[in-house]
From TrEMBL:
Residues 23-277 form the EAL domain. Coiled coil: none annotated. It is found in: Cell membrane. This is cyclic-guanylate-specific phosphodiesterase.
Length: 279
């Protein structure tokens, strides 16, 4: 045999070797990608159903890989977090999105909502607030247009610290949105402890809005809960007429989803802004 008996290699099944190799490759790929600025930001519109117009966008990161083409965040965000480069990537996304948002407003587009995803590790970085403030000042984006989307996992950690962070962001004018609501471990009692502005209904619940679906009850319950806590609501994953109809009926007016548009590169996003019926 090629390997000695104490070699680690022989304990791995071939598919494990392949996986290990892929992870190692991914790690060096990510470091290069950060250095070479291979990450880009796409924008998915928020549509106001009442005013029938695009009022803003969620910034979603993509990796423009030189060999593999476009890679979606579910394939690399976790690894980016584990490698500790999420702080760098997150700042890059925030800066790009703020620059773009500012440019669109300068060009005359009436946008009032920019949402960025912030991972727990990023939020907890000691310099997060300082750098966030700096980026807003530098790009001249009015802080009250900016929303930080955070998942429920943040709420399970150190409450005092998180509350203080949320308050600092809110003191600047920035809003806090809870993303993927209903998929994690949080509950009503968690929600009540935190100063939150917006609740995003997860797409898994929205996608089950069909007549007589028991999950319509879940969506209704989430909406009722948000209302009782005085939170604004955004619905994601809106894919068809029936979703729109249902949400309108429930007075959920801010939505995003493939029914209106997929996340788009800036140039395409600007094209849909130009379509007169949206402005
Ligand atoms: P998310 O924040 O829940 O974003 C919504 C995801 O749903 C996006 O996937 C979006 O493309 C997709 N989506 C939008 N509309 C529809 C629809 O109608 N139907 C369906 N089935 N899906 C829809 P994406 O862009 O692949 O992002 C996946 C996740 O990666 C995001 O989920 C977010 O958690 C994370 N992510 C994206 N960008 C960033 C970032 O800059 N920083 C961090 N920390 N996480 C990010
Ligand atoms: Ca999000
Ligand atoms: Ca979500
Ligand atoms: Ca998600």
């Amino acid at each position: 045999a090629k390997f000695s008996s104490n070699s680690k290699v022989k304990f791995f099944a071939p598919e494990m070797e392949a996986k290990e190799y892929r992870l190692l490759k991914l790690e060096s790929d990510i470091h290069r990608a950060i250095k070479e600025k291979e990450f880009t930001v796409h924008y998915q519109p928020f549509v106001d159903l009442k005013r029938n117009k695009i009022i803003g966008a969620e910034a979603l990161v993509r990796w423009q890989h030189p060999k593999d083409g476009i890679i979606y965040p579910d394939a690399f965000i976790e690894q980016v977090e584990q490698l500790g480069v999420i702080v760098e990537l997150g700042e890059y996304v925030l800066l790009s999105a703020c620059k773009q948002f500012s440019a669109w407003r300068k060009a005359g587009y009436d946008l009032e909502k920019l949402a960025v995803n912030v991972s727990t590790l990023q939020l907890q970085h000691p310099k997060f607030i300082e750098r966030f403030r700096h980026i807003l000042q530098y790009t001249k984006v009015p802080p009250n247009f900016v929303e930080v989307e955070i998942t429920e996992s943040v709420l399970v950690g150190n409450a005092n610290k998180t509350v203080a962070l949320f308050r600092e962001l809110q003191a600047m004018g920035v809003k806090i949105a809870i993303d993927d609501f209903g998929t994690g471990y949080s509950s009503l009692s968690y929600l009540k402890q935190y100063p939150i502005n917006i609740l995003k209904i997860d797409k898994s619940f929205v996608s089950e809005i069909i007549s007589a679906s028991p999950n319509t009850g879940i969506v209704s319950a989430i909406i009722a809960m948000a209302k009782s806590l005085n939170l604004d609501i955004v619905a994601e994953g809106v894919e068809n007429d029936w979703h729109v109809h249902f949400l309108k009926q429930k007075q959920v007016n801010i939505v995003q989803g493939y029914f209106y548009s997929r996340p788009l590169p800036p140039i395409q996003f600007e094209k849909i802004l130009q379509q007169s019926n949206w402005n």
